[in-house]
Amino acid sequence: MALPPLAPHTATHHSRAMPAPFDLVLPLHGPDATAALAASIAPLCRAGDVIALWGGIGAGKSHFARALIATRLAAAGRAEDIPSPTFTLVQTYDADEIEIWHSDLYRLTHADEVLELGLEDAFDSALCLIEWPDRLGSDLPGRALHLRLDPGSGPDDRIARLHAMGGGWADRLAPIRDRATVAHD
Question: Which among 9, 65, 98, 136 counts the fewest CB atoms within 10 Å?
Answer without folding.
Answer: 9
